[in-house]
Amino acid sequence: MSRPVVDFVAPRRAIGLELIGGRGHYERVIAAVIAAETSVWIATANLKELMIEDGRARPGVRRRVGAVGYRSVLAALAERAARGVELRILSADRPSRPFRAELARQPALARALLLRRCPRVHLKVVIVDGALLYLGSANWTGAGLGARGSGRRNFELGIATDDGPLLDQVQALYEHLWTGGECATCRLKTECPLPLSEVAAGPPPEPALVAPPTRKGAKPRKKAARRKATR
């Protein structure tokens, strides 16, 4: 019997790579993502909103020397999606409330961005254009990917490489998980929102992923007809 694709030790060989730490994640990984031309595949345990520096000029807005503006990375991904870039995110947890709120403000991105969840996902991977691979400790969060200021970032390490065989192997593993290749033998099905094997042919929309957040404990609004009846 062949060994499962998720269990292996690859043969040792020489490859070229870059070691990335702290703010280097932002400068190398995020910069590559927002410049993607064909595809962005992400795997992360935690999925949160993060803000990126915004150096764009705006009509009628005077730029101040030394001033730095910010915008959601999802706005940048929306621009990539408009250019036909394939966007995938595979995460263990449900996206954070701010992530879902911003995604709800980006309806075109919400339609284009493919989101799937698997509670067993703990690998942190970013693959850009099938040509750049990041492997490391950083989740898709501001603190993990160096988007926060000094003193607010996690201590993270990873590598980036354009090595073809390694890219092929990691992309094959990603596709295997993405399409539910491990669902048949998984023992966490009770914690799974929907087995990936069931959505591999095309996941149904998940309104919970994009619905605007509500304040915890907030009371539901009364219906208009009921208000009129009490006037």
Describe the model:
The structure is a single chain. This protein is α+β, with helices and mostly antiparallel strands. The chain has one domain (18-54, 66-214): Endonuclease, Chain A (2-Layer Sandwich), CATH 3.30.870. The protein contains 8 helices and 9 strands. It has helices at 24-33, 73-82, 97-104, 107-112, 164-178, 196-199, 207-210, 224-229, and strands at residues 18-21, 39-44, 51-54, 69-72, 86-91, 114-117, 125-128, 132-136, 157-161. The strands form 2 sheets. It has a 7-stranded mixed β-sheet, with helices on both faces. A hairpin with a 3-residue loop joins strand 7 (125-128) and strand 8 (132-136). The chain is globular.
Which sequence of strands runs across the widest sheet?
A: 1-9-8-7-2-5-6
Low-confidence region ranges: 205-231
Helix and strand sequence: EHEEEHEHHEEEEHHHH
Q: What count of domains describes the coordinates?
A: 1
Categorize the overall geometry: globular
Total beta-strand segments? 9
Which structural class do you get from the secondary structure elements? Answer: alpha+beta
Helix content: 25-40%
User: Mind describing the biggest β-sheet?
Assistant: 7 strands, mixed
* Strand proportion: 15-25%
Q: What brief labels describe this structure?
A:
231 residues; Endonuclease, Chain A; 7-stranded mixed beta sheet; two-stranded antiparallel ribbon; 8 helices
Quick structural gist:
The chain has 231 residues and is an alpha+beta fold. The chain has helices at 24-33, 73-82, 97-104, 107-112, 164-178, 196-199, 207-210, 224-229; strands at 18-21, 39-44, 51-54, 69-72, 86-91, 114-117, 125-128, 132-136, 157-161.
